[in-house]
Design a protein that fits this description.
Layout (H helix, E strand, L loop, with lengths): L1 H40 L1 H7 L4 H10 L2 H9 L13 H23 L2 H8 L2 H13 L5 H18 L10 H24 L5 H23 L8 H25 L5 H6 L2 H15 L5 H17 L3 H8 L8
Helix pairs in contact: 1-11, 1-13, 1-15, 2-11, 3-5, 3-10, 3-11, 4-10, 5-6, 5-9, 5-10, 6-9, 7-9, 8-13, 8-14, 10-11, 13-14
């Protein structure tokens, strides 16, 4: 009996440290996810300012980020040679992200930014469905509840900017397809992160994405290079902020946070777009928009995993997240 008590006393501190370590890891991942959402949230502005077509801007967004991603991938002490680390989930993630950018950039130029943003934020619906059937990750009632709150909040945030118009129906359809591809990208990335670190995954999947988008730009558009310095600056913003930083932080977070919860943070993109328009473009924020933004934040908070779930879900991935 005495031995059992002594054993429990010895093991309790280590369990507490492990629990605190898991919580700390999840907190870092959540911060990375939030910052990544901020960077991705301002990408529509850069797409509009880029002095090239939607497919070309999508291509440069990924291709020009490859040197940065390569350097990141080589900083790992046990970095894999470029010829290793390839798998079907990595290739599928790159192909799905190419489809996401293809239809996302089309939506931005063929419908309002509000419509394109709202329709793209439907991605969490597909992620939550796929999390159960593909990843075998539990989807809690809190996640579905958070999703409903976020959807209502996004509608209120975008408010009167949302609307159906015959001349924008094609662009709206592109926005809907964006959500399907982005949801698939979330699931594939989460799956690939089980066997590959964020740096190696981002570099390899981006090669696939850039190759597909290059073909789209080559055959569907006339100019591959911007003609103005403003266009160059806009592309640089897409490269460094939206892809290298935004998508890189997302890939990092998806090694620690479940796909279902992480997908809800997509809604922050709508909030960031509204705040950016208020700060940079002088657009007025209405009471309804402020309420919508608060609902998005509340929905994400409502859906957050518990401490016990953090310890259970993130520990098996530690060896890929050093």
């Amino acid at each position: 009996m005495t031995e059992k008590i002594a054993s429990s006393k010895i093991s309790s501190p280590s369990q507490a440290v492990l629990g605190e370590g898991a919580k700390s890891t999840a907190t870092v991942a959540l911060c990375a996810l939030l910052v990544g959402a901020v960077f991705m949230g301002i990408s529509p502005v850069f797409v509009r300012l880029a002095d090239v077509g939607p497919f070309t801007s999508a291509f440069w967004r990924v291709c020009a980020a490859l040197p940065v991603l390569w350097v990141w991938s080589r900083t790992e002490s046990k970095a894999l040679p470029i010829g290793q680390g390839w798998s079907w989930p990595v290739v599928i993630a790159g192909a799905l992200f190419a489809g996401d950018l293809f239809f996302w950039h089309l939506a931005i130029v063929h419908t309002s930014i509000a419509n394109a943003t709202f329709l793209a934020t439907l991605a969490p619906v597909w992620v939550l469905l796929g999390s159960s059937f593909i990843l075998r990750e539990p989807v809690t009632a809190n996640m579905w509840g958070g999703l409903m709150i976020c959807l209502i909040g996004a509608g209120a945030l975008l408010g009167s900017s949302l609307g159906l118009a015959p001349e924008r129906l094609l662009g709206d359809a592109f926005g809907g397809l964006t959500s399907v591809f982005f949801g698939g990208y979330f699931l594939a990335t989460r799956y690939a992160r089980r066997s590959l670190g964020p740096d190696g995954l981002m570099f390899r999947s981006s090669i696939v994405t850039a190759a597909i988008l290059f073909l789209a730009a080559l055959f569907l558009e006339d100019a591959l290079f911007p003609q103005t310095w403003l266009g160059v600056a806009a592309l640089a913003g897409l490269v460094l902020m939206a892809h290298a930083a935004g998508q890189g932080l997302l890939a990092y977070a998806l090694g620690r946070l479940t796909a279902g919860f992480s997908a809800l943070v997509i809604f922050l993109e709508a909030l960031i777009a509204a705040v950016f328009a208020w700060v940079a473009l002088g657009e007025t924020l209405t009471i309804l928009q402020i309420i919508g933004g608060a609902m998005i934040l509340s929905g994400i908070w409502f859906a957050r995993p518990s401490g016990a779930a953090i310890l259970r879900k993130y520990k098996p991935l530690d060896k890929f997240n050093k």
